């Protein structure tokens, strides 16, 4: 007996059938029902993708394949809806339907925040899917930024995902110097997550600019001091110009101010050991835009150990 001949339909709408996982009810519905939309603009295919109903997804692709192109009020096609929930088996099924040209158009679609399917795969640390997407859709997808101008590379760096970084930068190593809306390269995110391995790869293999500064004037040394990673501070100092410690941000704060603010004694020790005692007093008297010295900043944040070291 075919599915279409069943008459014991218990679900009134296609959405009810999808949520109840009743494929037999869907089979008894018209094409119009299967293509209907909720107030959010989502179709039954969106809901099936969101709930990881793979059999229903296959059924809907066979009977109403055009619903793949429907965009919800959130700017999502069914692919992005599935990816947002981490259902990458559904993503692969959806992107394997139709011609490569059509699949590419769907894969390149972004939601209202500019998030792509590749960025979601990276966010979920699903490298298998991310590499599958890269192999299928290439550089164009890899270079697709979100509304904050972040690339998938930025997200991978923030997670310390060296495997993805090694693969994606082969498509275009220049992306290592791509700046987001805050003026931050992937190096900033690698430092924030404490991954010296990722930072070294970006600088040594991809030629990321170690002297880059953000729109607020923060150098990579500033970021390392604020994040509290002495080993990264040491590595940056060994490869930078001697006066990088005294580079100031738009708030007139140098790296010593940042290390004091975060209470990172290790970073303070590394930076101050290269300054003779006579000059050190002058350096520690330098004030930021709010007239705070490094000692003021340790006191403000109650970093007792750092304050004791500076005194």
Set out the fold topology:
Blueprint: H1 14-20, H2 23-27, H3 31-34, H4 44-50, H5 54-63, H6 78-84, H7 88-95, H8 100-107, H9 117-123, H10 127-142, H11 152-159, H12 162-168, H13 186-192, H14 196-205, H15 220-227, H16 230-238, H17 255-262, H18 265-272, H19 277-284, H20 294-300, H21 304-310
Keywords: ANK repeat, Repeat
InterPro entries: Ankyrin_rpt, Ankyrin_rpt-contain_sf
Pfam family, one: Ank
Report on the architecture of this protein.
By secondary structure, the chain is mainly alpha-helical. Residues 1-6 have low confidence and may be disordered. The protein is 53% helix and 0% strand. It has three domains: 1-112, Alpha Horseshoe (Serine Threonine Protein Phosphatase 5, Tetratricopeptide repeat), CATH 1.25.40.20; 114-209, Ankyrin repeat-containing domain (Serine Threonine Protein Phosphatase 5, Tetratricopeptide repeat); 213-311, Ankyrin repeat-containing domain (Serine Threonine Protein Phosphatase 5, Tetratricopeptide repeat, Alpha Horseshoe). The chain contains 21 helices and no strands.
